[in-house]
Design a protein that fits this description.
This protein has a 3-stranded antiparallel sheet with strand order 2-1-3. By secondary structure, it is mainly alpha-helical. The protein is globular, with a radius of gyration of 16 Å. α1 runs antiparallel to α3 and α4 crosses α5. The longest helix has 23 residues. It folds into 2 domains: about 70 residues, Fe,Mn superoxide dismutase (SOD) domain (Helix Hairpins); about 120 residues, Iron/manganese superoxide dismutase, C-terminal domain (minor pseudopilin epsh fold). The protein has 8 helices and 3 strands, in the order αααααβββααα. A hairpin with a 5-residue loop joins β1 and β2. Helices cover about 45% and strands about 10% of the residues. The structure holds manganese (III) ion (MN3). Manganese (III) ion (MN3) binds next to α1.
Length: about 210
């Protein structure tokens, strides 16, 4: 059985960029539902026995649609909570991450512009990601629904480890931002946990 990971801060710690009510509903309702449905979907399957979440994600083609949607939902949100920190806890990206971003995008500001553009191009519900591939290069992509770029349903050349991600489902921003997805994406830069991005870029196995 998988379980909820704690949200590291109070629901109101992300204001004014993400309001407390959105965080509370997102965490207590949406995240909980993905978890419950994930545990239900894997029960009695071969994914039920001591499989790590990453094993399930990277072998998702061998599962079914309920597992894909809910393993993805559980995985993506678990990652997302860690990606957010209150502004007063923010740090700049470390040199290694910054160099890699500069190599691919010229500057951190250019990267943010590129990420925003890709995010705005995502039609419907999904996620936008900064990923690291096996050659240690960075790329930006979107995935529909609760898929993510480490899943083996994605072409191998396009697969990557997500090191930063933003939830583009309306439930992540609609209460506060309504149809203004661009404003939500802009606000996100005030909450990015660069320490986790650094950590995943430099040390996470993929
Ligand atoms: Mn969500």
């Amino acid at each position: 059985m998988f379980s909820l990971i704690d949200l590291p801060y109070d629901f109101n710690a992300y204001e004014p960029y993400i309001d407390a009510r959105t965080m509370e509903l997102h965490y207590t309702k949406h995240y909980q539902a993905y978890l419950d449905n994930f545990n239900k979907a894997i029960e009695g399957t071969e994914m039920d026995n001591d499989r790590t979440l990453m094993h399930i994600i990277t072998n998702i083609s061998k599962t079914n649609e309920p597992i894909r949607n809910n393993a993805g939902g559980y995985h993506n949100h678990t990652l997302f909570w860690g990606m957010l920190v209150p502004t007063y806890r923010q740090h700049e990206p470390q040199v290694a991450t910054e160099r890699a971003i500069e190599k691919s995008y010229g500057s951190v500001d250019n990267f943010k512009t590129a990420f925003t553009k890709v995010a705005l191009s995502c039609f419907g519900s999904g996620w936008v990601w900064l990923c690291r591939n096996k050659a240690n290069e960075l790329f930006i992509c979107t995935t529909p629904n609760q898929d993510n770029p480490a899943m083996d349903i994605i072409d191998e050349q396009k697969r990557g480890l997500p090191i930063l991600g933003l939830d583009l489902w309306e439930h992540a921003y609609y209460l506060q931002y309504q149809n203004k997805r661009a404003d939500y994406i802009n606000a996100f830069w005030n909450l990015v946990n660069w320490r986790l991005v650094d950590d995943r870029f430099q040390y996470a196995p993929f």
